[in-house]
TrEMBL record:
Protein name per Swiss-Prot or TrEMBL: P-type Ca(2+) transporter
Record's keyword terms, sorted: ATP-binding, Calcium, Calcium transport, Cell membrane, Ion transport, Membrane, Metal-binding, Nucleotide-binding, Translocase, Transmembrane, Transmembrane helix, Transport
Domain annotation Cation-transporting P-type ATPase N-terminal: ranges: 1-74
Family membership noted in the UniProt record: Belongs to the cation transport ATPase (P-type) (TC 3.A.3) family. Type IIA subfamily.
Gene3D superfamilies recorded: Calcium-transporting ATPase, cytoplasmic domain N, Calcium-transporting ATPase, cytoplasmic transduction domain A, Calcium-transporting ATPase, transmembrane domain, HAD superfamily/HAD-like
GO CC list: plasma membrane
Transmembrane annotation, as ranges: 57-73, 79-96, 242-265, 277-302, 679-701, 707-727, 755-774, 780-796, 817-837, 843-866
A Pfam entry, by short name: Cation_ATPase_N
Enzyme nomenclature, EC number: 7.2.2.10
Biological processes per GO annotation: export from cell
MF GO annotations: ATP binding; ATP hydrolysis activity; metal ion binding; P-type calcium transporter activity
Segment forming the signal sequence: none
Amino acid sequence: MFYQKNYEEVLTDLESSENGLSQEKAKQLLEKHGYNELQEKDKVPVWKLFLESFKDPLVIILLIAAIVQIALGETMESLIIFAVIILNSILGVVQTKKAESSLDSLKALSAPNAKVIREGNKLTIPAKELVPGDVVILEAGDYVPADGRLIEAQTLKCVEGMLTGESEPVLKHTDVIEDESPLGDQKNMVFSGSMVVYGRGTFVTTGTGMNSEMGKIAGLLENADSKLTPLQQNIESFSKKLGVGITLLALLIFGIQVGKAFIMGTGNMGEVVLSSFMFAVAIAVAAIPEALSSIMTIVLAVGTNNMAKKQAIIRKLPAVETLGSAKVICTDKTGTLTQNKMTVVDLYMNGTEPEVMNSAESYESNAHSRLLTLCSVLCNDSAIGSEGQEIGDPTETALINFANKNGLNYEDIRNENPRVEELPFDSDRKLMTTVNKTRDGYFMFTKGAPDIIFSRSKYVLINGEKKELTEEIKQQFRAQNEGFSNRALRVLAFTYKEVEEGFSPSIEDEDDLTLIGLLAMIDPPRAEVIDAVAEAKEAGIKTVMITGDHKTTAAAIAREIGIMEDGDLALTGQELDALTEEELDEKLEKITVYARVSPENKIRIVRAWQKKDCVSAMTGDGVNDAPALKQADIGIGMGSGTDVAKDASDMVLVDDNFASIVNAVEVGRTVYSNIKKSITYLFAGNFGAIIAILFAVFANWTNPFTALQLLFINLVNDSLPAIALGFEPTERGTMKRAPRPANEGILADGTMQRVVFRGIVIGIVTIIAQYIGMQVSPEFGVAMAFTTLIFARTLQTIASRSNVDPAVKIGFFSNKYVIGAMVVCFLLYSIVLIPAVRPIFSIPLAFGMQELGICIGLALISTLVMEVGKIFIRKSVK
Ligand code: ATP
């Protein structure tokens, strides 16, 4: 067992070393062991999906009716009905598969990475490419990507609840464990799927994929349920009600037709019953929007792809919609609003002139200056790579860059003063400590947030001499810190403490420190953020800054970016803690900056906004941010953040950039409005057909369509144009409107009016067409009604493209999918005009260009009327 051996032996067993595997070896091993992932259960196969579409009771009824018709000799029409049903099912399968594959590709985008050492170099690779023997680096916030034996563990703590059921973090070590032990006691091992909540470490991979402990117990990974979005749920329940309504209507029409035939004693009663029944079922099949759900998934997937292009990866589909109704964005400062490119621009050492720092000589000649350099370079995990690339926390790279700029070499300094102990930085403590062996003995160096450091310091260096830190001197430091912060600078304070050999620090030892000085750095705002904040504001979205940084620094940057305006408040976490619920409720809208916050503060801020029914987005990157990310309506993880934070989020920002959130909101709003456009298009078309049918029933005309025609219209018009509308680009004014209320129904905001209006227009032109045709013969009436309905519905796509602008204004070619879908519709229709096919679709051979021209003319008029109607509907909605 690996835990019973020392790590050198494990490395040898796995033919690896502390420098990791070679790339070549890793490649061979990957071929041998396969990807480091749990196998997924198979997807529903295509044939099963296809068969499932025949589970719909209406389809079954239709099939039975068609079979009966065959028995009665109406072979051709029934065969075509079969063909249409099968085509519809195929289309359904294609749609489902397309929706599935787009979701899969999104999943791939958010797949985790692992930091490995190969051939002595630190690399980041996709976690699925890990192989046994790989040396992997772990830091707080990482998910452990595979099982492994620890080589190094610095206060490394892992939560392994999913394997052991134990929710407390386990402190890891690297010693050999002699006795046979259960997983929970194998403390020199780490296991795939657990997470690092503290410290850091390195391990050699011993088990990957299905050979990891997780793989053994989990067996096959269930395909994650594709959870329905609120709008999908809304539509699903609405469709059900609509289905019942339409079925009742179809029954009514059936009853009326049979009743009429009975009273009038016309024809063969059996035939009448059968054809009326077929017709009623066809109405139900055509009018019930069964494809709606998969059409919506596709439109949502189109949206998520667009977001991915704009650096926002959606992890949970509902977020696409929720984003569209976001009212407040609570965002981190560092890296999200600012560039996270820190540069030291000023310093303060009480009594010592700042200039002495700026040379290599002062490192040798001035003890005060040397200690500041030592603390800033040694109590620091960052590095400059061989190609000059900065590795590690930008706050820390700024410090080594500063030393290098002053003519020193940070690597030499680190080699001369090796680190023997450390307490890693964590954002709750806001401190970091190392113990180093220097030429003057052992020193503990602590750096961190100035206010924390001031409260932990007992002494201060003045002119290189250690003195008692009096209240007066502390005040000078505070004033200096405040001055830096007002210039929007981030300030760190540096301290030391002389210690004995063998001293091992704990958090309690970060006390009685000797204050050396302050370094102030600038972190300029990202250029695009100022516009993004303004755009969000115009879209009715409030931006709130939440940061671990000092209040004055935060407020200064918030003002520069446009987040904080006159009359707004900046609060520290402590001040927030002091507010009662009522006080917070009252002030909430005014508070635009929260500084020095704790993770609990973040949760409280989100809850306060949610209490006011405001859909809130919240960014986060650390382990501690996970609960707040989960609490927020839209948790946004940072691409550079920890796996734990990403896992808790609904969306991940690849570039950490605030502007990408605002872009994502725009896409979210577009997706929502496109879905509504598809829905309006579908419902209005179906409604138009029903109006024409009902009119004919009551006017005692022939049915305007045959059962087959209805099914054909369903095939032609019910999917492609609706999907194409999902590709509509963002409409003018999308980001100038207030966010949509979260619980708004699908028919709100003018959708109902549009469906009714367009449905009536389509219905009327179809009735007129039938009337004109009837002057020749009832068959002509049917042919003309059928043709007009197809054309009016197809052309409706043009009117559906925008709720704001007329079609001419948005440009006919700005959505090529709509053009494509319409061309397909026309081509499909042209099939029924082929002389040999005409009888099946009840189109008389005499139906010529003139009739076709009238139908197209009527359809064009309907589109024009819809365009004019836009103006009135828009006014009535606003
Ligand atoms: P954000 O704005 O994203 O919350 P932040 O960097 O201000 O970012 P934290 O990373 O939680 O927030 O840091 C909190 C405080 O801890 C900082 O303001 C700084 O004073 C101090 N600090 C940051 N990085 C280090 C570090 N590497 N070592 C010591 N102290 C640090």
